[in-house]
Design brief:
- There is one protein chain.
- The chain is built from 25 helices and no strands.
- The radius of gyration is 25 Å and the shape is globular.
- Helix 3 (48-67) packs parallel to helix 8 (123-153), helix 8 (123-153) packs parallel to helix 12 (195-225) and helix 13 packs across helix 14.
- 76% of the residues lie in helices and 0% in strands.
- The chain is mostly helical and 479 residues long.
């Protein structure tokens, strides 16, 4: 307990726990609601929840990227202990089956089962389905660990996971009509009522456990022993940035870090892939024809890259923070370089979303407004984390590195960055209409862009007031 309180991230963890518990409570309420709705459609027969499990597994898989880490991220301190080399991995894999998040799904399954019992369904069929649903969630935790470990190595494995989760829908994809969908739901419901279904799930869980046990140890050992380090073959000069002086030098570092370092490169590819995917969905489908949803996703496409990359601003610099502090004015040039770089990156989603303008989903004024708002206001908000972040971000380690949020302030600012501009836009639409709202957003964004030297210097002054506390945090959290 004392060692936990002495941790440099003790205060941040308290905030993060409060936000986590609040999010879990809200998620539990939604699960109870949807579990009751599914039970109402079951007509007193068990198996309906099983038929919806392919969709639930996709949602569960995406949620786990936020709430679940791989065992490799936590096992590093135990590798050198005088115990079997697989023991630590096995303990963490077993704990993934018994995690609180897995049992949170009971908030959906239990109300569903209770309603079915009162509707006249048999006790044993309902209990069989309840156990099967819980085991499927545990199986999904192993599938997630398998793909997450491989995605940390190569982001293209995410496409493989998409294929795997699309397999249950394959008959409907090949023949998309209501009759096919109905037969598919009935087939899954019938399988869920069979005794062999539970046995099959248990066997698959055991097989995936052994596979994950092998991969987790293999990749953890590689990272710790640095077996895969490769020599640099080519050095890019980026000489055109020399005209910007010291800021140009930090721009070179930012560009090279996103191209070379495994952590940042993976984050970059994932963010840009999401931008392309959502932009294509908006431009070429009718899934988001609602004007408010279009505005949210337009903002999201612009904000996602900056939010995911800058939420841990100064984390990568924690690896060499002592050198920065030897010439403290360099921090201002560093922050300016980051602002210029991430503002320039916004041209990518702008170009990617132009097809939505050509198809009439977006207007050019709308794209310009959200791009300027992201470059100005959202960057101003997210850059405030440079004052508070004090945990070093590993540049190459992905399997053994910690992920997610280090403090509650990161979560609050990320949520604020994604939802506050959308709320402002909605209010503006209701009061003055979209055209004047977009003009107002553009002017506000331009104001923050033009004044960025002023608020960056203010951030720098606040960083200097906390420099000893932050430097100590960066030193303590280096891997």
């Amino acid at each position: 307990m004392l060692s936990y309180k002495r941790s440099p991230i003790f205060e941040q963890n308290k905030w993060a726990k409060v936000m986590t518990y609040f999010g879990a409570a809200m998620l539990a309420l939604y699960m109870i609601l949807y579990g009751s709705i599914i039970a109402m459609t079951a007509e007193g027969e068990a198996g309906r929840m099983i038929s919806f499990m392919p969709l639930i597994l996709v949602i569960d898989y995406l949620f786990r990227f936020v709430v679940q880490t791989t065992p490799g991220m936590m096992v590093k301190p135990y590798i050198l202990l005088p115990i079997s080399r697989y023991t630590a991995i096995e303990c963490f894999l077993l704990s993934s089956h018994l995690s609180g998040y897995n049992f949170l799904w009971l908030c959906m399954f239990v109300p569903y089962s209770i309603i079915l019992l009162f509707a006249g369904a048999g006790f044993w069929p309902v209990m069989l389905e309840l156990v099967a649903c819980l085991l499927i969630i545990m199986l999904n935790s192993q599938v997630y660990l398998f793909f997450r470990t491989l995605i940390n190595r190569n982001v293209l494995w995410f496409l493989a996971s998409v294929v795997v989760y699309a397999i249950p829908y394959l008959p409907w994809i090949l023949n998309p009509n209501k009759k096919t969908a109905g037969r598919l739901l009935d087939t899954y419901a019938e399988a869920g009522r069979a005794w062999w279904f539970l046995l099959a799930i248990v066997i698959v869980i055991a097989l995936l456990f052994m596979v994950n046990r092998h991969f987790q140890f293999k990749y953890v050992y590689e990272e710790i022993s640095k077996k895969k380090e490769r020599a640099l073959k080519h050095v890019s000069q980026f000489a055109f940035l020399n005209r910007f002086g010291l800021v140009g030098e930090y721009l070179k570092i930012e560009v090279k870090s996103n191209l070379r370092n495994k952590t940042m490169r993976t984050r970059c590819i994932m963010s840009l892939s999401l931008i392309v995917m959502f932009s294509m969905l908006i431009a070429y489908t009718s899934i988001y024809d609602n004007v408010y949803m279009q505005n949210f996703w337009c903002l999201y496409c612009f904000a996602i890259y900056s939010v995911t990359a800058l939420i841990k601003i100064m984390g990568q610099e924690g690896n060499y923070i002592d050198l920065l502090m030897m010439h403290r004015e360099n921090v201002i040039a560093l922050l300016k370089a980051k602002f210029w770089f991430y503002s320039a990156v916004l041209l990518i989603p702008f170009l990617v979303m132009l097809p939505a303008v050509f198809t009439g989903k977006f207007t050019l004024l709308m794209l310009v407004a959200y791009m300027l708002l992201t470059a100005g206001v959202l960057h101003f908000v997210i850059f405030q984390l440079a004052v508070y972040n004090k945990q070093t971000l590993p540049l190459q380690q992905k399997v053994t590195a910690k992920g997610n949020f280090e403090n509650g302030m990161q979560l609050v600012i990320e949520l604020l960055s994604l939802f506050a501009p959308g709320a402002i836009a909605t209010i503006g639409f209701l009061l003055v209409g979209p055209t004047y709202t977009f003009i107002f957003m553009s002017l506000i964004g331009l104001a923050f862009i033009v004044t960025h030297p002023i608020w960056i210097r203010h951030i720098y002054k606040r960083m200097m007031q906390r420099r000893y506390e932050n430097i100590d945090g960066f030193h303590t959290t280096r891997q």
